Amino acid sequence: MLPPLQRAISRMSRMPPSSHFFTTSRQTLQKLPRRSFTNLPKRPTTTAKTKTPLLLSKFLPFATRTNYHLSDAAYRRSRHTTYALRILLTLNTTIFLAWQFALNPSLASLLPFTLPIDRRILARWLAENTLLSAASISAGRGWTIITSAFTHQSLGHFLLNMFSLQAFGSVMVAFGIGPAKLVSLYLLSAIGGSLGFLYHKMRRQQPGWDVSSACGASGAIMGMAAVAGCLAPWARMLLFGIVPMPMVGMVGLYAVVDTVLLDYNTSIAHSAHLGGFGAGLLAYVVGLRRFGGIWPKWL
């Protein structure tokens, strides 16, 4: 018994010349068994009925690949969410670099071109429009409630927040949350964090409370962390890169620490963290619980 390929070649050699030679040959070859050159499974086109454990610790904080068990629509949304996450990172980076050029004249001298604005004027403009304080709100600069969530002055603060933003943003990508919902969550959590900071300063009434300013994406990131903890509560995370613990435990620990240190005079705006955390929980209950997580299905 000849193999299928040799039988086809033998049959083709006995065929008379004809204008239908190539058509007949193609039909003959199509009957041959096909070989698969890869054993990788194809991405399903429908949502899987069984739950797939999300080992997010293998992909965080630099995950860009989405869950292969998402539907086509969710898969496309997750790709767009990745772009939205990069835009948020870019905006934070741009304002951070602007602050560095405004505060450090040595950095401006390294540029191959001359800045079109004096750095002192730039520093004054940034302070008025990107730092949150009760005085800035009283002066009519209400947009600082949002712009302060894109502002960082120190390198350590900037790197830690961008690391966390990429980490928890990757969870949104993995669950197929759309770009509009990701940006809305960031802005809602930023507003919650800013309002929490202002309320806490007003309640304590310490000397100079009205001119005490704050900046940073920590409140917005705490809101994203709250949603991530609700969506994937048992995903394995590494606290400080060392201690393994579930995501819900790590996020809850952050909230407890902020609550304990709320009234201590530290350089960290714990009230902004808690305000963003509460806004994130509200966003999950109202609009994001349908993506899964800890919310009971019967509610």
From TrEMBL:
Keyword Cell wall biogenesis/degradation: no
Keyword set, alphabetical order: Hydrolase, Membrane, Transmembrane, Transmembrane helix
The protein, known as: Rhomboid-domain-containing protein
Peptidase S54 rhomboid domain location: 141-288
Annotated TM spans: 83-102, 158-177, 183-199, 211-235, 241-262, 274-292
Top-rank taxon, per record: Eukaryota
GO MF, one annotated term: serine-type endopeptidase activity
Family: Belongs to the peptidase S54 family.
Compartment(s) of residence: Membrane
